[in-house]
Amino acid sequence: MLDRTEFAPADPMPPEIAVLRNAAEPVWIFAYGSLMWDPDFPHGESETALLRGYHRSFCLYSYDYRGSRMRPGLTLGLDRGGACRGIVLRLPPESLAGAIDRLWTREMTAPRVYDMRLLPVRTACGNGKAYAFTVRRDHPDYSGHLSPEETARIIAGAVGRRGACRDYLADTMRHLTVLGLADAPLTRLAARVEAVAAASV
Fold it and tell me: N or C end: fewer C-beta atoms under 10 angstroms in the chain?
């Protein structure tokens, strides 16, 4: 679990998100990357879910956690188009305010790279809604549409404060497998990364 001091300062929480700290209705969060295995905030039950209209993508440059200023890495974001399979996490009502605060601090480092949107999701229990962190394409850390080869090259070689970018990809793939969730583009990317890493040895 990460120490709170590891996170950079977060942007101020807007009123429409701050009001969730006292919400009477359940608050669900859609997790598609490291939130699946290292949420770092209290949560209750979870279940697999499908989010349409966005896809999981290595589209954010990382200059600290998974890379450096000299050799940036890439981290995952939810970018527009397609669909994404992940999990939804229910924030516990008894510690809702703390969970919201912790989640915001973790994800919304200034200037924030995500928008926190309430989006429709589908689970085995039916249709519902969950808050998802979608990429802001106008943010300077947004990488745009890199080629698969360039993406693989960056991931294979970048290392940051929280470890290798390649390990972050492997962790994501491993947890998707455990959950029984398929992501064909990510599987192809992982194969490219391994090929690049093998060629560089």
Answer: C
pLDDT in tens, 40-91: 777 788 999 999 999 999 999 999 989 999 999 999 999 999 999 999 999 9
Out of 107, 149, 150, 194, pick the active-site residue: 107
Backbone angles phi, psi at 30, to 5 degrees: -90, 125
Q: Residue 187 — φ and ψ, nearest 5°?
A: -65, -45
The angle at the Cα of 168, spanning 139 to 155, to the nearest 5 degrees, equals 65
Classify residue 132 by burial, with Cβ atoms within 10 Å: 0-12, 13-18, 19+: buried
Write down the pTM of the prediction.
0.91
The CA-to-CA distance between both ends of the chain, in Å, stands at 32
* Whether residue 25 lies in the annotated active site: no
